[in-house]
Design goal:
The complex is a heterodimer of chains A (115) and B (112). Chain A is mainly β. Chain A contains no helices and eleven strands. In chain A, 37% of the residues are buried. Chain B has 112 residues and is mainly beta. The chains are: A mainly beta (115), B mainly beta (112).
């Protein structure tokens, strides 16, 4: 039972390079999320997808784009990486509905360094 | 807007001592509150959640939390700390579409 799988686990980019972080879940969840974790700031929501075919901005969307490829997969793209995007990125998924009561399941994270 | 404040970015306790991690929330609607734990180089794992059923919530690994509306608090406790409890703990409030707003986290250190 894999749960939420993120690839890659580690990545170093040069400023201006692009890359895509991949996320897949096998729990048949409708909703998926991308968070970034920075020291002393907790986790902040970048983008989310309430269901297949929909995406929307979270708290810190600038510099990122997302694609909900199908029900299982939700990718995060950095078009032109900046040092400020050095962070640990977490993908999460949850069942839809419940007005906020549903637990989120998290992947293991991607540690991204932009130099 | 909803928000969560965790008092104390670092807490240190002796093995066997009481663990108390503080969380206060701000919400204009009845909140749904969560505690997550993160072990080094791992993702987040749910410890427990409050969804308005019972004010005292029991979670995994002997942790529990009490929802106190009058104090807008949801503090996490464990009667006796174990070395394996050393980790970072996050309090979070959930909103529409199950989007989470996290506190800044508390790093728990357990000493012999």
């Amino acid at each position: 039972n894999a749960g939420v799988t993120q690839t890659p686990k580690f990545q170093v980019l040069k400023t201006g390079q692009s890359m895509t972080l991949q996320c897949a879940q096998d729990m048949n969840h409708n909703s998926m999320y991308w968070y970034r974790q920075d020291p002393g700031m907790g986790l902040r929501l970048i983008y989310y997808s309430a269901s297949e075919g929909t995406t929307d901005k979270g708290e810190v969307p600038n510099g990122y784009n997302v694609s909900r490829l199908n029900k299982r997969e939700f990718s995060l793209r950095l078009e032109s990486a900046a040092p400020s995007q050095t962070s640990v990125y977490f993908c999460a998924s949850s069942l839809k509905g419940g007005q906020g009561t549903q637990e989120a399941f998290f992947g293991q994270g991607t540690r991204l360094t932009v130099v | 807007a909803q928000s969560v404040t965790q008092l104390g970015s670092h807490v240190s306790v002796s093995e066997g001592a009481l663990v108390l991690l503080r969380c206060n929330y701000s919400s204009s609607v009845p909140p749904y509150l969560f505690w997550y734990v993160q072990y080094p180089n791992q993702g987040l794992q749910l410890l427990l959640k409050y969804t308005s059923a019972a004010t005292l919530v029991k979670g995994i690994n002997g942790f529990e939390a009490e929802f106190k509306k009058s104090e807008t608090s949801f503090h996490l406790t464990k009667p006796s700390a174990h070395m394996s409890d050393a980790a970072e703990y996050f309090c979070a409030v959930s909103g529409r579409l199950n989007k989470l707003t996290f506190g800044t986290g508390t790093q728990l250190k357990v000493e012999l």
